[in-house]
Specification:
Largest sheet: 7 strands, mixed
Shape: globular
Strand order of the largest sheet: 3-2-1-4-7-6-8
Structural class: alpha/beta
Number of helices: 10
Distance between the termini: 73 Å
Strand content: 25-35%
Order of helices and strands: EHEEHHHEEHHEEHHHEEEEEEEEEEEH
Number of strands: 18
Length: 317
């Protein structure tokens, strides 16, 4: 497999679920991760996860040396707009790799080599259009493609000088994928992922539709399973359980709790990693109850809002 390095800047205390992320990285020894963080705790890093302890200010100062104009980078979340430039900004660390990429830490990887094949890496210059996982061919031309002009402007100059989140790494207007398309560079989307919506107490999958600039939602009340380096999305259809093996399970903006695991396997239900010793039907009941509770709470909140609006309207008469 071609050499790949995933770049992950994270500033602040790493999330509670980070050990599960590291476990999934360990099961992909052919891929390296470069973690840039100010969290200096002695965590169980596998050999293929290289942690560089540094401050956010130090990273920002390093990025600034690469540009002749002042950058706007006051908070770590803005780094997502700089993701398409990591090949240029971190060229020393990425030297010797065939591809570099970006990912989040609120996720668990399955078997990357099953989904990111040698054929794909030979054919495409960019793989994956979402910020939580994307790959770029590590060549000087591709690493500078973020500087390309679009119409009469060079978008990166505007994006790098505003604190606004421009979604340059995903579906911004323009996004990095638009610049690849304009340059005639081959790209590939991924439909082998499980991206969980952060807007519900239960799990349901979400897919962004760039042509419509909106999200669509898929399977509701599902759960994840991770078993010794393989990741699965699970859902119930009638009286049967179905599953699909995926590249990764992504559960953003959730404070994931965890139980002590006796083996390298777990179920992933809303906001918790649990042992595979649990009955699937029992976990399904828990997930279903959370879904119904969430809908009931939303309906009650909507009714209360209507009552308050009616009272305010009456008091103004």
């Amino acid at each position: 497999m071609k050499k790949i390095c995933m770049v992950v800047p994270y500033f602040g205390k790493l999330p509670q679920s980070f050990n599960f992320f590291l476990l999934s990285c360990a099961y992909n020894p052919d891929v390296d991760w470069l973690l840039l963080t100010d969290d200096d705790r002695p965590l169980p890093y596998p050999e293929n996860v290289h942690c560089v302890v540094m401050s956010f200010d130090a990273l920002r100062a390093r990025f600034q040396t690469k540009f002749s104009f002042p950058l706007s980078l006051e908070r770590p979340y803005k780094l997502r707009d700089y993701r398409p430039a990591y090949g240029f900004l971190l060229e020393e660390e990425l030297r010797g790799y065939d591809f570099w990429g970006c990912c989040d830490v609120d996720m668990m990887f399955g078997d990357i080599g099953v989904f990111i094949t040698e054929d794909m890496l030979s054919r495409y210059d960019q793989i994956g259009r979402m910020g939580h996982f994307s790959l770029y061919r590590n060549t000087p031309e591709i690493n500078l493609l973020f500087t390309a002009a679009a119409g009469e402007e060079e978008p990166y100059r505007r994006i790098f000088t505003t604190e606004e989140n421009c979604m340059f790494d995903e579906w911004g207007a323009p996004g990095i994928r638009d610049l690849f398309r304009q340059a005639g560079k081959p790209t590939c989307d991924l439909d082998c992922i499980a991206d969980i919506s952060p807007d519900d107490s239960y799990f349901r999958t979400a897919v962004f539709q760039p042509e419509k600039q909106r999200w669509s939602y898929g399977k509701e009340n599902c759960m994840g399973c991770w078993d010794r380096g393989r990741a699965f999305l699970m859902w119930k259809k009638g009286s049967y359980w179905k599953n699909k093996e995926v590249l990764y399970l992504h559960f953003p903006k959730r404070n994931m709790e965890q139980e002590a695991l006796t083996e390298d396997a777990c179920y992933i239900i809303p906001d918790k990693f649990v042992s595979t010793e649990y009955s699937i039907e029992r976990l399904y009941t828990i997930c279903r109850n959370r879904q119904l509770w969430n809908k009931a709470r939303w309906q009650k909140g909507r009714e209360g809002l209507r009552e308050r609006l009616a009272q305010n309207s009456a008091s103004k008469r």
